[in-house]
Design brief:
single chain, 384 residues, alpha/beta, three-stranded antiparallel sheet, 14% strand, binds pyridoxal-5'-phosphate
Length: 384
């Protein structure tokens, strides 16, 4: 069987098709499916971009591994925000979105017959990228009883001498769970003993709803000596999903190997976008922290109040713009979500889209405008 044949079907394509069908039939669809911020990129960044795009120096091939100005801004920001020290030249790599970095990471170290530990509840890319690199994805469970953190004993059991990577994602999509220092210390210890590269997908690191600051893996590890890598994204925090820019930081050899893979595939991010991203990490960052706190906690409250009043059990989470809720009764997640679309015109995502552990759960994204959030909450709340 070829590698492409081994890829699981992409559930989100089916949801998209059902959504289009409902819209074509005249249903006023409220789309709470995809995590794609509805708010615009901040005006200050658009101004920087407008100027940068006019500069002919920016029209040529970009610096392959990232512009030094941006890498220095990243290094400063990691120090100020997360207390992390990384060298901008050897320990920072600019990515064409974090999906790109996650997708290429297995190519750095996975050979045919190797395996990679992936969360079952997780962003589908970890497993797909493993398969495309010729490896075997080994899912580990994330369950509500453990706050959607993995059981280190299960991780250890799944690891063998062909295990190359452990993918984690905190703050977590789809559950909103966060990891604390103690958790990072325990998995880091395990990865050191087993000589496994520890990856944290930190796409939602700055999207917290209670003003807290989740602990970076790079703060607990020593990225100069521990084989760790953390991927941060501009997408969710700065409403920049369409711009395609993110960065990885971590151990020089791990970051360097990812840079080498990318050299054979892409030629870096448009320099004007990199200049804009460097600006984002300055004053605009504080502005966006305020915006995140202004927008998402309010939307979450509207949604969670409606769900809880209607008897839904919602996972209590302080981060991300997702609401993770149990499907009531014994109906399957896919059936529940199909009926939500057909009977209510509301798009929500069935839990199994993130792995078999998502059965019995569904995800609501709060990245729709306030009117849609209120309308979606009303329809679900009154549904019986
Ligand atoms: C957990 C997680 N990681 C990574 C990404 C990719 O983000 P981007 O490629 O826009 O940086 C997403 C996007 O939805 C995500 O949910």
């Amino acid at each position: 069987m070829g590698r492409l044949d081994k890829l699981p079907p992409y559930l989100f394509s089916a949801i998209d098709a059902a959504k289009k069908k409902a819209r074509a039939a005249g249903v006023a669809v409220v789309d709470l499916g995809v995590g794609d911020p509805d708010r615009p990129t901040p005006a200050a960044l658009l101004e920087v971009m407008s100027r940068a795009v006019m500069d002919p120096d920016n029209h040529r091939y970009p610096a392959q591994r990232g512009d030094l100005v941006l890498k220095q801004a990243v290094s400063r920001w990691l120090a100020d925000r997360h207390g992390v020290q990384v060298d901008p030249v050897t320990q920072v790599l600019i990515l064409v979105g974090s999906k790109e970095g996650l997708g290429h990471l297995p190519l750095t170290c996975v050979q045919e017959g190797d395996n990679v530990l992936i969360p079952d509840l997780g962003y589908p890319v970890y497993g797909q990228a493993t398969i495309l690199a010729g490896g075997e994805p080994r899912p580990f469970r994330l369950v509500a009883d453990r706050g959607f953190l993995p059981d280190p004993a299960e991780l250890e059991e799944l690891m063998d001498d062909r295990t190359r990577l452990l993918f984690l994602n905190y703050p977590n999509n789809p559950t909103g769970a966060v990891a604390d220092r103690g958790f990072w210390e325990s998995v880091l210890g395990l990865c050191r003993r087993k000589n496994v590269v520890l990856v944290n997908d930190a796409a939602y690191m700055e999207v917290t709803l209670d003003g807290s600051r989740p602990v970076s893996l790079l703060k607990v590890a020593d990225p100069a000596s521990d084989r760790v890598i953390e991927l941060h994204s501009f997408s969710k925090m700065f409403n920049m999903t369409g711009w395609r820019i993110a960065f990885a930081a971590g151990h020089p050899a791990v970051v360097g190997d990812l840079g080498r893979v990318k050299e054979s595939i892409d030629s870096g991010v448009f320099t004007a976008i990199q200049a804009t991203a460097a600006h984002a990490l300055g004053d605009v960052f504080a502005e966006m922290l305020d915006e995140v706190m202004r927008v998402y906690p309010r939307r979450r409250r509207i949604m969670v109040d409606a769900l809880e009043k209607a008897g839904f059990e919602v996972f209590d989470s302080p981060a991300t713009f997702y609401v993770w809720s149990r499907v009531p009764g014994s109906e399957s997640s896919v059936e529940f979500c199909r009926r939500a679309l057909e009977e209510l015109g509301v798009v929500v995502t069935p839990g199994p889209g993130f792995g078999s552990g998502g059965e019995g759960w569904f995800r609501i994204s709060l990245t729709a405008d306030d009117r849609d959030i209120a309308e979606g909450a009303r329809r679900i709340g009154e549904w019986r």
